[in-house]
UniProtKB/TrEMBL annotation:
<dbReference type="Pfam" id="PF00155">
    <property type="entry name" value="Aminotran_1_2"/>
</dbReference>
<dbReference type="InterPro" id="IPR015422">
    <property type="entry name" value="PyrdxlP-dep_Trfase_small"/>
</dbReference>
<keyword id="KW-0032">Aminotransferase</keyword>
<dbReference type="GO" id="GO:0008483">
    <property type="term" value="F:transaminase activity"/>
</dbReference>
<dbReference type="InterPro" id="IPR015424">
    <property type="entry name" value="PyrdxlP-dep_Trfase"/>
</dbReference>
<dbReference type="InterPro" id="IPR015421">
    <property type="entry name" value="PyrdxlP-dep_Trfase_major"/>
</dbReference>
<dbReference type="GO" id="GO:0030170">
    <property type="term" value="F:pyridoxal phosphate binding"/>
</dbReference>
<protein>
    <submittedName>
        <fullName>Aspartate aminotransferase YhdR</fullName>
    </submittedName>
</protein>
<keyword id="KW-0808">Transferase</keyword>
<feature type="domain" description="Aminotransferase class I/classII large">
    <location>
        <begin position="23"/>
        <end position="198"/>
    </location>
</feature>
<dbReference type="InterPro" id="IPR004839">
    <property type="entry name" value="Aminotransferase_I/II_large"/>
</dbReference>
Length: 210
């Protein structure tokens, strides 16, 4: 997760570029995992750092509604042309053919803004999988939020290693699809039995590359 200090530096660079080029530059923050933070971390809201900022979020993660794609887009309330910006966003939504949630669901979600899934449960799964995999020799950054891990592949060819894991009945995704060649992605929003059952496959696959 980006700290408030990192966001300050990013937004300072954006303002310098705005002055240099004589135009507005918007910072768009994609935030479906904003509430899924671990270890007592608090999210530094982007609106505190840059006036020309837009938040896009979805409740498919924090309310565990996969596939529903119910969320919202919000413009900085102090941006002087926010009405024009909002109109443009609504126009894009309509012309691109996205389907809005039914009115009843929109009212329900509005009342659930302070609610999320059990974060402690996700953190427990993260700790279990991180401890298990690092003990096997996998190298990765410990996630600060969401429910994914990106371990380094023991071979530069992440697609090859993902195929090796599949041979041991472990399903993961190559990192190159996310701009991270040489890594692979694990999702751990699964039941404990599935995570525990994957450990022998993870160990057998990395042992073959030692």
């Amino acid at each position: 997760m980006y700290s408030a200090e990192v966001l300050d530096e990013i937004c300072s660079l954006i303002r310098e570029a705005e002055a240099e080029h004589g135009r507005e530059i918007f910072l768009v923050s994609d935030e479906p995992y904003r509430k899924l933070l671990y270890d007592g971390l608090e999210y530094p809201h982007i609106f505190h750092h840059h006036q020309r900022s837009i938040v896009a979020t979805s409740h498919s993660k924090d309310l565990a509604l996969p596939g529903e794609r119910i969320g919202y887009i919000a413009a900085h309330p102090d941006y002087e042309d926010k009405s024009e910006l909002a109109d443009g966003l609504v126009f894009c939504n309509r012309t691109l053919g996205f389907v809005n949630a039914p009115a009843l669901m929109q009212h329900i979600v509005r009342a659930l803004q302070s609610v999320s899934v059990d974060i402690d449960e996700y953190q427990r799964k993260r700790d279990f999988l991180y401890d298990s995999l690092t003990q096997m020799g996998y190298n990765m950054v410990k996630p600060q939020g969401a429910f994914y891990m990106f371990p380094a592949s023991p071979t530069p060819d992440d697609v090859e290693f993902v195929a090796a894991l599949q041979e041991h009945k472990v399903l993961v995704v190559p990192g190159r699809g996310f701009g991270l060649p040489g890594y692979f992605r694990i999702s751990y929003c699964l039941d404990d039995h599935t995570l525990e059952g994957a450990l022998p496959g993870f160990e057998a696959a990395i042992e073959a590359y030692r």
